[in-house]
Structures are given as structure tokens and as C-alpha cells.
């Protein structure tokens, strides 16, 4: 099969799929077409039925009246000229003359001859129209003599009836001459009229079908006209949901859809303005935090140098620190270190918020990385490591160290020893679980453990942690394309589970400037001073 042919088949399949998607059972387009078609079908069938009924009655009545008038006139002129007791030959001859009238009907004359016998004369001979072809009820009505009154001037009247024999409609009529004479019956086939009515029915049926097809096409055109603005509105709403806040609809006309488009444009404009204001305020806030952090680094550097000197004096034997002010000096040293950690954390947070944080990837052995993190912070005696060597991943070693330091340090501080760290590899990802043996995380705290500046106990607003460690760990996991979850173990204690892809090379590498700015937070966060997560 040629490539051109394959492309044609794909195009046909796509077009067919597009048609079915537009005409799916739940689509408004299909419902409009169906409703419009049903209304048109009902109207067409009703109109055709009424037209057929009116035409049928008009055709049959016109034909019937013409035949009955002719028969009545023939009875008066020809049958009325017969003697009171005619012979069979006379009846036969008269019946033949009557049948030759303009309406061409069959005639049967019944009378008594001079001997008192009943004689018959039929226009069709002995095998033609006979008395058995006349319904019994009609014969009784014709031969019944009625009382003459002011309202009824004649004892006998003309009666008629429509019958069907072998799917052919007939008109049967009969009357008796007043003052004595033969009784006459007439049989007229209505087959020509029935054929005309059948032709009319077929014509009306075809017209109804054409009306239905036309109404469906018209409904499709109207649905397209009506739904096109709705489709444009849906596309614009999706674009707006994707963040393209400059999306606007073209407004034309003065109908309800135009009003809807204007309302959408007004809402989109207001949303764009509000989002722009919020983005401006957020950017200003980030700039303020970043500028404040940078401005604080210079005095903090000097203060940190002084506190290091004071700390050396405190640790030296026979130091020159007055015992009365020693507690205050220790407090200054501790709070200075805490303030330095907070500034570094704030700078890291601003990099995540500004989107400037990037990865510097390297192939690392996860077990070696965890061992180095624990050894650097002197946690070897308090942490159990269950990790086989040889589980490699392409990650950012510094950011992985930040994550591990926060999770393990948080477990050591707020959980209970021993803290167990296990590593598994499955489905192209590395799973690191950090479990402690403490009281666990309260259920009302679980949803907030990764929130910034959140601390489980409101009674301890001052602590060594900044409330940013776990949130920074989560951001570092996200930038790798991973995730961190917190839960309580059924055996007791809390479990933090870190999932990272074994290859994060699809993410952008950290540029040199970003790498330089990011330095310095790993070691400080690695001390496990976050007070979040557990009671």
C-alpha cells in the first residue's frame, strides 16, 4: 500500500471520527437535529394526513354524487317508461340502455311480470350484476315503504353504500319507482378514484420524506450556526484554563450568543487583570524576600564571625567569659546560627518560587550517598541503613543530600530511635523510606507536614527549626520529578517515603549562576533542625 493511499485512509478515518464525535448521542448538535426532525416529521405527517383525508372525501363525494345523479335520472327517464308489469326482455333492454350512460355503471332491474313472477334484467347479462352483489341491508332499506308525512314526502328513497370486493372499492345504490314500477340497483367501480388516491398518498409520502430530509439538513445548518459560537466559547474557555489569559472572542450581532461572548470577554479581561496584579504582588514579594535575604547575609557574616569567637571562648578552658553572662552568650550564638539557617532557607525558597532552581546531575550510588549524609552529621549510631550497594541513579547529589538530611534529621528529632532508612528500586524509580519509632504524626497534622512555616505544636512557636525544611525537601523532590509522602506505620512511628526517577536527565541542568547561588543550604539544612511534622 502506498504512502499516499495510507494518508488518504487516515484522513478518511479522522474525518469519520470527527463526524461521529459531532453526532455522538449526548451531543447538543444531534439532539437539535433529532428534535427539529421530529417536529418537522410530525408537522409533515399531520399536514399530509389532513390533505389526504380532505382530498379523499372530495374525490369520492364528487364521483359518488355524479354517479347517483345519473342513476337517479336514468331510473326516472328509462325505468319510469316501462309498463307496470314488464317482461324480462323489456327489463334487460332497459338495463342495457341505462348502463350506457355517461357514468358507465352496471344496472339490475327487478319487477313482477303479468303472471306475478319476479323477473330480473341485468346490463351484464346472466353472468353480470346480480341481486347477490347487493348487501342485504341495502335491499331491505330500498324495498321498505316509509310513511308519508310532512317531513317525508315519498315512500321510497335512494340509498347507497360503499363496499370492497377483492381489494376493489365499489359504490352500490338502489331505489324503487314511486307509484309502481321496477326496483333498480346500480354497481359502480371506484377503482380509478382509488388509484388516484393511491397516487396522491405516494406523492404525499414522498413529499413528507423530502420534507424530513430537508428539515434534517436545515437543522444541521441551524445547529452549526448556533453551535459554532458555543464551540468557539468552549475552545476559548480551554485556552483560558491553560493560562492563555489574553484569549478573547470575536463579537458579532446583538443576540444572546453575542451577549454571552461579551460577558466572556469581560470576565477574561477582569481575570487577566487580577492575575497580573497577583503575579505582580507575588513577584514583588519574592523580590522583597530575596533582597532581604541578600542584605542580611553581609551583617550575618560579621555576626557569625563574632559568635564563632565567642563560642571558642566558651569552649576554651578558663575562658574569659563572665559566668553571669555565659547563658546570654550561648543564647546569642544559638540564635545567630538559627537566623543564618533561616536566611539560607529563605533564599532557597525564593529560587524555587522564581523557577531559577536547576539540577546538576551526576551518577550516584544511592547507598553511598545516604551513608555519606549520615556520616557527615554523626548519625551512624542512631540510624539503621537497609540499602544494597549498586542501586545507581542519575540525580543531583547536593539536592538529594538536602532531602535526606531533612527527612532523617526530622525523624531523629521528633520521632523515636532507632530511625530506619531502606532503599528499593522498582519501575525505573528509587524508593527511599525513612521510618522512626516515635508516637507518629497526628491525623490533623498529616495534611500540613510539608507546608511552609507549619509547626505541629502551637505551644512551641520558638524552636531550632525554621518550619521550611520539609517544604524544601519536597521542592527538591519535585524538581527531580519525584514525590515525598508522609504516613503513619501500622507498627507505630512515622514513615516518610521519597520516590525519585532513576534518570532525571530529561530535566534542565542547573546553570553556573544558579549553582553558585544554591550553594550553602545543604549543610545547614542537613542538621535536621526542622520542627515540623510530628508532635
From TrEMBL:
Xref: Pfam families: HAMP (PF00672), HATPase_c (PF02518), HisKA (PF00512)
- Which GO terms of the cellular component aspect does the record hold? plasma membrane
Q: What residues form the membrane-spanning segments?
A: 32-54
Q: What is its main location?
A: membrane
Q: Which reaction does it catalyse?
A: ATP + protein L-histidine = ADP + protein N-phospho-L-histidine
- Return the InterPro entries for the record: HAMP_dom (IPR003660), HATPase_C_sf (IPR036890), HATPase_dom (IPR003594), His_kinase_dom (IPR005467), HisK_dim/P_dom (IPR003661), HisK_dim/P_sf (IPR036097), Sig_transdc_His_kin-like_C (IPR004358)
Residue ranges annotated as compositionally biased, kind Basic and acidic residues, are 524-535
Q: Where is the Histidine kinase domain?
A: 291-504
Q: What is its EC number?
A: 2.7.13.3
* Sequence segments annotated as region (Disordered): 506-535
Gene3D superfamilies, sorted: 1.10.287.130, 6.10.340.10, Histidine kinase-like ATPase, C-terminal domain (3.30.565.10)
Keywords recorded for this protein, A-Z: ATP-binding, Cell membrane, Kinase, Membrane, Nucleotide-binding, Phosphoprotein, Transferase, Transmembrane, Transmembrane helix, Two-component regulatory system
This protein's membrane topology, according to the annotation, is: Multi-pass membrane protein
The record's GO molecular-function terms, alphabetically, read:
ATP binding; phosphorelay sensor kinase activity
Its recorded name reads histidine kinase
* Native organism: Streptomyces griseicoloratus
What lineage, starting at the top, does this entry show?
Bacteria, Bacillati, Actinomycetota, Actinomycetes, Kitasatosporales
Amino acid at each position: 500500500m502506498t504512502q499516499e493511499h495510507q494518508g488518504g485512509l487516515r484522513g478518511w478515518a479522522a474525518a469519520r471520527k470527527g463526524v461521529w464525535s459531532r453526532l455522538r448521542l449526548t451531543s447538543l448538535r444531534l439532539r437539535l437535529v433529532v428534535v427539529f426532525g421530529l417536529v418537522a416529521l410530525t408537522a409533515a405527517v399531520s399536514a399530509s394526513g389532513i390533505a389526504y383525508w380532505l382530498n379523499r372525501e372530495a374525490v369520492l363525494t364528487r364521483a359518488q354524487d355524479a354517479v347517483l345523479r345519473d342513476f337517479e335520472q336514468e331510473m326516472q327517464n328509462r325505468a319510469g317508461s316501462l309498463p307496470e308489469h314488464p317482461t324480462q326482455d323489456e327489463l334487460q333492454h332497459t338495463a342495457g340502455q341505462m348502463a350506457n350512460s355517461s357514468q358507465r355503471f352496471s344496472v339490475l332491474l327487478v319487477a313482477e311480470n303479468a303472471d306475478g313472477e319476479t323477473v330480473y334484467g341485468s346490463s351484464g347479462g346472466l353472468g353480470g350484476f346480480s341481486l347477490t352483489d347487493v348487501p342485504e341491508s341495502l335491499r331491505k332499506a330500498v324495498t321498505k315503504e316509509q310513511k308519508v308525512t310532512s317531513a317525508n314526502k315519498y315512500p321510497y328513497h335512494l340509498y347507497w353504500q360503499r363496499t370492497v370486493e377483492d381489494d376493489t372499492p365499489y359504490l352500490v345504490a338502489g331505489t324503487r319507482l314511486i307509484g309502481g314500477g321496477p326496483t333498480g340497483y346500480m354497481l359502480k367501480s371506484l377503482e380509478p378514484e382509488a388509484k388516484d388516491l393511491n397516487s396522491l398518498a405516494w406523492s404525499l409520502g414522498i413529499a413528507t420524506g423530502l420534507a424530513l430530509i430537508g428539515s434534517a439538513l436545515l437543522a444541521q445548518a441551524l445547529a452549526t450556526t448556533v453551535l459554532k459560537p458555543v464551540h468557539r466559547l468552549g475552545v476559548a474557555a480551554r485556552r483560558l484554563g491553560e493560562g492563555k489569559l489574553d484569549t478573547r472572542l470575536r463579537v458579532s450581532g446583538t443576540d444572546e450568543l453575542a451577549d454571552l461572548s461579551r460577558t466572556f470577554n469581560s470576565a477574561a479581561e477582569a481575570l487577566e487583570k487580577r492575575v497580573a496584579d497577583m503575579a505582580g504582588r507575588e513577584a514583588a514579594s519574592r523580590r522583597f524576600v530575596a533582597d532581604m535575604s541578600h542584605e542580611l547575609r553581609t551583617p550575618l557574616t560579621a555576626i557569625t564571625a563574632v559568635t564563632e569567637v565567642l563560642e571558642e571562648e566558651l569552649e576554651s578552658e578558663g575562658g574569659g567569659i563572665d559566668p553571669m553572662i555565659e547563658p546570654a552568650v550561648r543564647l546569642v550564638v544559638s540564635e545567630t546560627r538559627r537566623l543564618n539557617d533561616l536566611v539560607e532557607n529563605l533564599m532557597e525558597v525564593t529560587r524555587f518560587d522564581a523557577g531559577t532552581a536547576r539540577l546538576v546531575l551526576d551518577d550516584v550510588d544511592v547507598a553511598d550517598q545516604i551513608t555519606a549524609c549520615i556520616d557527615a552529621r554523626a548519625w551512624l549510631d542512631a540510624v539503621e541503613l537497609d540499602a544494597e550497594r549498586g542501586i545507581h541513579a542519575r540525580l543531583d547529589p547536593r539536592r538529594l543530600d538536602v532531602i535526606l538530611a531533612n527527612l532523617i534529621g526530622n525523624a531523629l528529632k521528633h520521632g523515636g530511635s532507632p530511625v530506619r532508612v531502606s532503599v528499593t528500586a522498582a519501575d525505573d524509580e528509587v524508593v527511599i523510606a525513612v521510618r522512626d519509632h516515635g508516637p507518629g504524626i497526628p491525623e490533623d497534622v498529616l495534611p500540613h507536614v510539608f507546608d511552609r512555616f507549619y509547626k505541629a505544636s502551637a505551644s512551641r512557636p520558638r524552636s531550632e527549626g525554621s518550619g521550611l525544611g520539609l517544604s524544601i525537601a519536597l521542592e527538591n523532590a519535585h524538581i527531580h520529578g519525584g514525590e515525598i509522602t508522609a504516613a503513619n506505620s501500622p507498627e507505630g512511628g512515622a514513615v516518610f517515603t521519597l520516590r525519585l526517577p532513576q534518570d532525571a536527565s530529561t530535566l534542565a541542568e542547573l546553570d553556573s549562576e544558579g549553582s553558585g547561588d544554591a550553594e550553602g543550604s545543604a549543610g545547614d539544612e542537613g542538621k535536621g533542625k526542622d520542627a515540623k511534622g510530628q508532635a
